Fold these 2 entries.
Entry 1:
Amino acid sequence: MSAHKGNETVVFSTPVSILETASAVGTKEGEGPLGKLFDRVLEDNMAGEKSWEAAESALVRDNLSALFKKSGVSPDFIFAGDLQNQCCGTTYGVKDLNIPLFGIFGACSTFGEALALGAMTVDSGAARYAAAAASSHFYSAERQFRFPAELGNQRPPTATYTVTGAGAAMLGKGDGPYITSFTAGKITDYGINDANNMGAAMAPAAAACIKAHLEDTGRSAGYYDVIATGDLGRVGTELLLQLLEKDGINIEKNHTDCGMEIFDNKSQDTHAGGSGCACSAAVFSALFYRKLKNSSIKRMLLVPTGALMSTVSVQQGENILGTAFAVSVENEVIKWTI
């Protein structure tokens, strides 16, 4: 049974298993360093559909279907979200699956939120299985939040490249790796209102969430083999390390960022790195889950990060708020004192 530990953290006396994962990405992501690890790489980013938005829904549907097939089970509930208005990428993607959906929005932190909510649902006994998923699409995100790609606008060095893809995990009771705890971050406002500098907007939320997790659990940063933020990119990562260093926390040796893992910036010209809901979802599902399964890493803290904004808030000049979820995933069953 789950219980609070500290102010923001929930721990599981009986950890929740990640039974299987599935990942699908677009053409540019397939050409990156992790290309061979994804379950599916699109040959065409339109995915045979008539619009970018419909292509993202097709990614959601097909990736969840692949997850169900790989795991051999169908979930009681789906927890999922995306960046499209009213999470339409997700809702249209799951409409024919005939499974209840909890549509969620945490911007690019959505996968962390989905894992947390899914794990609590399984832990409580309300569901035997729960699917946690997230998606994004470069072209749908660009024309919603910035400029349609067809215009050919020049992107500044601070900009990140929204990942086209989807990632999903099936949660239940079984073998490891296990979700042993999670920390739900608080909303932060660092005064950033540039939609092309989301790394700077999200870094303070990541720093606050990591600090809260370590304080709540009594762990040091060195406890984890890997601390992987979601999509801070190069700019956000530099700021994160500086902010944590001020609090006496050094994660430089075991930190990486999913947005820096998915692309090779030198050859792919992705500026500050990758971003989007699919960034942490696809990288965890394809890369880190495999490493946990084969024990090349035994403990990781996945920290998906999100820049909370809308087309209206950006146009009105509002600050871009930040959020983060820190999910502890480990190979061994942890006996907490709760």
Note: The chain has one domain: 1-338.
Entry 2:
Amino acid sequence: MMKQILLGKLLPVVAAAALVTALVAVPVLASPASATRSLPSSVESGDEFDVAIQPEGCGFAGQVIETLPAGFTYLSCLTPDVGVEVTGNTVKFTFLGSDSFTYRVEAPAVTVTTIYPFHGVVKDEDKNEYPIPDDDITVSSSGTGTYTITVAVQGNGSTTPSAGSYTCDSGDVVSISATADQGWEFDRWSGDVAHSGSSSTTVTVDGSKTVTAHFSPISATTYLLAVECEPGDGGNIVLYPARGDNRYEAGTSVELTAAAAGGYAFSCWSGDLSGSANPVSIVMDCANSVTAKFVLLTQEGQADFAVSSLNISPGQVQPGQQVDISMVVTNSGEETGSYQATLYLNGDLEDTRTVEVALNSSQEVVFSITRTTPGTYTVLAGGQQGEFTVVGGQAAGDGLSAVTIIAIAAIVALVIALAFVFRRIRGRM
């Protein structure tokens, strides 16, 4: 009789446990979310075109996050009831269920036919993230045209050409320089320039642009680190930490990295440094002058590479968040060749990538990296310099899914029920 009573009391409990186990197993058995992207294989320079996204298995309030290539501009979403959030080159779409949607993009104005990759991820209702396969698009050259280049000044200083607006032909490379007034120093350029930290740099005319020379007052004893490349087109010198007009406070240790241009190789240092170590450091206890010497490698009948359009996206991230660093490699030589792209972070070699570039064509190279330590990181890629910042702490992970919370609550209720049943049984024995 006692066994029958026990069996009658325990049978509902066992059934409840089996139900909880099935609920917990549901998320594990669910299929992962996915999405496909449809876009033209090629467009003309500056054209507008549509990109169609077909998500699957996202559940309620799924998301697709697209990273547009450098130079592309998001215009609008053509599908109603889709939430859109734009941050730089990143566009986040939030939608209901697995409905497809279409958005419109404008291609950059280019003077050389270039291939660009589209990147993206899809998230399900529990914020689990899955990659969307990359798609390439070719942007064909638009030929010649004219654009407006505007030069501005912030602080006490002047520029050459002087502040104002100028009409330039598409494809031109305009030289600009900044000179600080007495008691001031050059800080940086803002806008699309080749080297934002150098007082003398260039602007490539591939669209209308505004560039601004920033000057700041000199507030401490500083020494000038004069740098020069020999020959002048053999490469450039990247300084870390970077300072406006190459002035450093006394006692600062500065790391110099010689970055060879296409067709050249670094040879040695001269002036207040010697040897061929690269990178190398110098302590600024007085004014110093350093020359980086390069040797010509390019021979007749070979490929001739040039690197441009350094893009860092996003420029500010949380610890562990991915940063995409891209540049465009152009081959203007006499045959197809392979170019080894290099990426330095704070003067240390981070990654290399070898790409094959056809004659009179360009190829975009993308490095994807993460950093967990907050701070500002100086980027050197293909002889171009930029930076990004890691701020704050790692964002907390997404909360538990609704199904998991229900399962946990059911387990707690089951434990309480078991305790109550066994207390009743023990009271009757």
Note: Helices lie at 2-29, 402-428.
